[in-house]
Amino acid sequence: MADLVGRAVGALLLTAVLLVVSTATAIWWTARQDARPASDAIVVLGSAQYNGVPSSIFAARLEHALRLYAEGVAPVIVTVGGRADGDQYTEAASGRAYLADAGIPGESLLAVEEGVDTLESMRAVGTAFDERGWSSAVLVTDPWHALRAERMAEDAGITADSSPTRQGPAVQTRTTQFRYILRETAAYLLYRATGESVAGAPGIG
């Protein structure tokens, strides 16, 4: 009996390890992809802002979105993200202002100023897409965040591809990359298991 229980526990542990490894591998693989199909909109996932000025992580995403827009990937850039406690500005509004200052016309910008994490924001984006009859998007975020962002977008009814940034603090060192992959693995597995998101470092919630 004890031997049978030991085998069962061993099998469960092996399954858990394989699940974690396969998820981390999928995150790593998705991070290396760069899909840019013609879409209804480019969606920039929000990150921290300081008095209306995007953080370095957020600015890297916005710069990447500018390049995609210039390439004709989509006619609209959607910035996403709500307001943290004590903030005067939302992430979405800060991102929109940054893009407007870069020369993007107002009719090509949409700020979805809702959500304190990726899941809430993506659900709000899904509603905005439904209202406008849009269905497809290219997501701009950090490489390690791409898989979970795609999954949440698809669950919100959006046909989503991702074009991750290749610059900024999230990709500077191997140690940073490894830490982000570990966090994203935990966050992705939590979402798949519970349907809920988790707050954390920029790009993790």
From TrEMBL:
Record InterPro entries: Cell_Envelope_Assoc, DUF218, Rossmann-like_a/b/a_fold
CC terms in the record's Gene Ontology section: plasma membrane
Pfam family, one: DUF218
Every DUF218 domain range: 40-186
PANTHER family according to UniProt: DUF218 DOMAIN-CONTAINING PROTEIN (PTHR30336:SF20), INNER MEMBRANE PROTEIN, PROBABLE PERMEASE (PTHR30336)
Protein name from the UniProt record: Uncharacterized SAM-binding protein YcdF, DUF218 family
The organism's taxonomic lineage, starting at the top: Bacteria, Bacillati, Actinomycetota, Actinomycetes, Geodermatophilales
